Amino acid sequence: MLAAVAVVGVVTRHNSPKAAAKSRTLSAAQRARRRDRIANTPVTIRGPLPGALLIADRGNDRILLVDTHRKTLWRFPTAADRAKGRQLVFDDDTFVEPGGEALVTNEEDHGDILSIGIATHRVTRLFGVPGFQAGPGASAGPSNRLNWPDDAYVLPDGTLTVADAYRCRVLFIRDHRIVRQIGRTDVCAHDPPRTLGPVNGDTPLPGGGVLVSEINGSWIDHFDSAGRLVRAFQAPVSYPSDPQLLSRGRILLADYADPGAVVILDEHGKVLWRYGPTSGWGALNHPSLAIMLPNGNIAVNDDYNDRVVIVDPKRQRIVWQYGHLARPGRGGGFLRTPDGMDFVPLGVGEKPLWQLVHHP
């Protein structure tokens, strides 16, 4: 009888109101974590584009996020933004900043670099003096002046990096101040790491390094986190643009020419794959950037054809496009000289998962 009472007592203590409330609280917390996990997990999207593309529509001074059905999920500036004086001037590239709360964009023809709040649309100038650009061979003035800035990224530690094309340097900037650079300002000759020719790509690498493209001579330079040259080779293209590191040391590179091309190279410059029709609907006209998507397809900015295309590398053909071949426009489905992009995964309900985008 006493044993039975003891057992009942144990059960009663285990199911006390306090314990039950704690159990319900834990269950609610677990449910909240599960909802958060589901909401922030990319969904599987079949087809050429397994998420969304963020497009710097340079000729229309805007940025668009579009899905596989060509639906616009986000844009800047909106009519409300323009009414507040928020605008872009020749936005050349755009990438998601670490944390997924803002975008960084370089206004190449305008000489500055901006940060745009994704939720707030607030615009902050990160560096540069907006205005007329000196261009190749001309004096750009003090060292804080840029001369056609290209490919601005914000690194995980908050450092801003940019290829300052015609001042022949790659800059590392913090708190509006240049803290480090590769190359000597306005000394335009290939002798890395001391000097660089005109540059148009500065892709961040794991470990803090950077992959640089020099226009003259078609050089691709790999620098480590201290700015030391790891290797350099001449790519078999006429105008190298924005090299992207792939797995196994391979490099994806656009050939900014007409007709243009996209190539995959090994770490020594040997061509492993190439897409470059010389005529017809599939031919490229000054492609400035190519990125590999999670499904293995390759997205390409086909700048002077006013479109962004996706190429299936196995089938060697375009399988998707946004924009219309050589038909610039501003309305739905049209672009005008797009010159930058980023891939953004989508969650449930086509929620852009900005926070999952990383460079590198």
Could you give a quick summary of the protein structure above?
With 360 residues, the protein is mostly beta strands. It has helices spanning 2-14, 17-39, 79-83; strands at 52-57, 62-67, 72-76, 91-96, 102-107, 112-117, 123-128, 149-154, 160-164, 169-174, 177-182, 199-204, 210-214, 219-223, 229-234, 240-245, 251-255, 261-265, 271-275, 287-292, 298-302, 307-312, 317-323, 340-344. It is built from three helices and 24 strands.
Report on the structure:
With 360 residues, the chain is mainly beta. The chain has a single domain (54-356), classed as Neuraminidase. It is built from 3 helices and 24 strands. It has helices at 2-14, 17-39, 79-83; strands at 52-57, 62-67, 72-76, 91-96, 102-107, 112-117, 123-128, 149-154, 160-164, 169-174, 177-182, 199-204, 210-214, 219-223, 229-234, 240-245, 251-255, 261-265, 271-275, 287-292, 298-302, 307-312, 317-323, 340-344. The protein has a 4-stranded antiparallel β-sheet with strand order 3-2-1-24, with no helix packed on it. The longest helix has 23 residues, at 17-39. The chain is globular. Residues 1-14 have low confidence and may be disordered.
